[in-house]
């Protein structure tokens, strides 16, 4: 599942509603907010949460509210059971069990251990209504280690909990540090689609955007991967405009037999033959990772084969370099495995 964040200090205006609508259309199912961040003024918290709840209902989104015991008094009663609570400080196993009977809950995954789990079982908590959520970490160097997260998530799965983690946004990063809100430190400045793919491999069920904004370009990239298992790659440095018109925005497929050094586009020789792309040899150059190449007319029966280079390769006069995957997307190349779908997008058209 995909989720995103909205914070109570931000205005619930037409721009916010348009963002909620777009996120819902792109497959996001959940909105996270916090009712207890110390820097925030609580004078308008109750009315703002009610407004937020109404907006999430309009776009079929579940609202998950981070709260401690002291902040519970700010939560309007009529937003339950349609909303859930991520419980922070001050809740006993008895409290958790009572709340779990009627309200979806999330517990702190980092502090959920065998002792607390056994106490919850003794209190007959409704585990079907309880998930385990990790924190985000605003301060650089304090995010979690990936190996530890995987081990923790696998243990949580073994005792019946679904898991969650955060990845940053890619615009308007939340203050006061403005350095991203990831769960994993390694993902603080990483490509967001690569971060999502990694978290799924680390036994994470729900991924939430921690920061308050996500570009429409990344919304579509995440949607295409989650809904269609298709990877979006941004290109620059086209050899000419005809290349851009042929290879951008067309769905491509890696061959089922995965090559070590390159991604080989299935059926590309016929595609290029039928296109306006010129396969006359041009000046050869070193093929750096992310180089998009086409085998030229000197390569015989391979003429027209379209490839993406995964590791640096030497010059080859039989191979034309026609475009380049942008630096921030290079980490996605290893995710394009057997028969994986992908498509190219012009970096200049990115919002």
Automatic annotation (TrEMBL):
Coiled-coil ranges from the UniProt annotation: none
Domain 6-phospho-N-acetylmuramidase N-terminal: 2-222
Gene3D superfamilies: Aldolase class I (3.20.20.70), Cyclophilin-like (2.40.100.10)
Domain 6-phospho-N-acetylmuramidase C-terminal: from-to ranges: 232-344
Domain of life the protein comes from: Bacteria
Protein name per UniProt: DUF871 domain-containing protein
Classification lineage: Bacteria, Bacillati, Bacillota, Bacilli, Lactobacillales
